[in-house]
Amino acid sequence: MDPVSLVLGIVPLLGGALKVYKSTYSKLKTFRHYSREVDRVRKHFDRQRQFFLNEIHLVLRLVLDDEALVQDMIDDGVHKKWKSLSLETAMVDCFGNNSQSLKEIIEDIGTIIDNVQKGLECFSCLDEERLQGERLKDTVKRVRDRMKISFDKSKFEKWTAELRDANNDLKLLREQMDSSSRRNLATRSS
Q1: Which DSSP string corresponds to 106-126?
Q2: Dihedral Cα 39, 41, 46, 47, nearest 10 deg
Q3: Which of 83, 115, 110 is nearest to 167 (CA)?
Q4: By the 8 A CB rule, do 188 and 76 touch?
Q5: CB atoms closer than 10 angstroms to residue 81
Q6: Which residues, at least 6 apart from 23, have a Cβ–Cβ distance to it below 8 Å?
Q7: What DSSP assignment string belongs to 53-98?
Q8: Are the CB atoms for 56 and 18 separated by under 8 Å?
Q9: Is residue 185 included in any domain, yes or no?
Q10: Which of 8 and 45 is assigned the larger pLDDT?
């Protein structure tokens, strides 16, 4: 099957992953006030989020020449370009037979982030303690000494390791595509 006929929905997946990463990080940032363990998890998660953002930026630069547009897309997971068929086609053209691998890596990252979000549901009891008009961050600080929340750090460490592996896979694939496209440009220029 030729790559152009594979309109896989890679681009919307990328935009969706950016949105979910952002909302999950925001929750971790709020809950970090509960304990040092949660703050450490947040730091590890944030590094993986930043590595992911950097890789997506570089993936987009393989198919888009407009740096400002790429940055706008990275900053906005609901940017209209995330629904662009022409961008999807350019992505599939660039990644060729590797398009399915790219899609699967992004899907894996989305699944892992969903698991992280489910893991954060242990903090949902804080909503019951929240006073009217009180910021959740302030609720966490107010009740952390008198409320025991079952936070399984080992699960979050496992998910962070899985994100690291997926980000490394994404980096490797992107580097291979970048190297391949540079060779193709050099061959055409000769």
Answers
A1: HHHHHHHHHHHHHHGGGGTHH
A2: 120
A3: 110
A4: no
A5: 17
A6: 117
A7: HHHHHHHHHHH---HHHHHHHHH-TT-GGGG-HHHHHHHHHHHGGG
A8: yes
A9: no
A10: 45
Please name the residue that has the structure tokens 């997971």: 77
Number of structural domains the chain divides into: 1
Domain span holding position 163:
3-179
Provide mean pLDDT across the span 62-89: 95
* Residue 1 binned pLDDT confidence (cut-offs 50, 70, 90): very low
Residue pair 93/3 in contact by the 8 Å Cβ criterion: yes
pLDDT of residue 26: 92
- The answer to whether residue 189 sits within a structural domain is no
Paired tokens of 149: 């929340």
Looking up tokens 């068929």 gives 85
What per-residue confidence (pLDDT) applies to 135? 86
pLDDT in tens, 121-174: 988 888 788 888 888 888 888 887 777 788 888 999 999 999 999 999 999 999
Q: Is residue 87 part of a domain?
A: yes
Tokens of 66: 């407009």
Question: Between these two residues, 113 and 8, which has the higher pLDDT value?
Answer: 113
